[in-house]
Amino acid sequence: MSDLTRVQLLWLQGRIENRIRFGHTVREVRLDPYRREVSFAPGSVFAFVRWSSNDYGTVLSRIDILQAVRAGEACATVAFVSPGAAILLQSFGWPKVERVLQHIDAIEALGIDPADVAPDHWRHVQNRLAANEPPRRYTRLRHRAWLHRRRVMP
Q1: What distance in Å separates the CA atoms of residue 86 and residue 154, rounded to the nearest whole number?
Q2: Whole-prediction pTM value?
Q3: Of 122, 5, 107, 13, nearest to 63 (Cα)?
Q4: For residues 98, 105, 116 and 85, what is the CA-based torsion angle, rounded to 10 degrees?
Q5: CA distances from 95 to 37, 79, 92, 122, 129 (A)
Q6: What would the pLDDT profile of 66-79 be if each residue is shown by its tens digit?
Q7: Cβ distance 125 to 135 under 8 Å?
Q8: In angstroms, rounded to a whole number, what is the distance separating the alpha carbons of residues 120 and 146?
Q9: What Cα–Cα distance (Å) separates residue 47 from each residue in 60, 101, 154?
């Protein structure tokens, strides 16, 4: 069994868009003009955005920030993600998805790759959104503390 977490991406213009917002893929396979499969190494953090519509408008807006797991580790099942992943954040509905995307943009504006952000921060954002409260900003100081913690406690 492979240690890679695989995500199926689909794009049908004006109907369905499953895409990766951030994350470092280790492999990509084009299945046909509309479908791709990307793979992530264990421990990798990535954002998976799903959107779909019908003749009457948007029917699904969703973002999941996930962490790839090793083969045999406990994980949650997530549609289009095989074998599954640790869920750091799940957000449904355009207003909440938009808030998460704005948070990601703010992190990128600091020059920090969102894939390198502390997983605990994404859990914090999830909890604050669930309580309809604004999440704390991720700062360079918080990021530096996370990098030191990761180095000391791998």
Answers
A1: 18
A2: 0.92
A3: 122
A4: 20
A5: 28, 21, 8, 17, 11
A6: 999 998 888 999 99
A7: yes
A8: 9
A9: 16, 10, 23
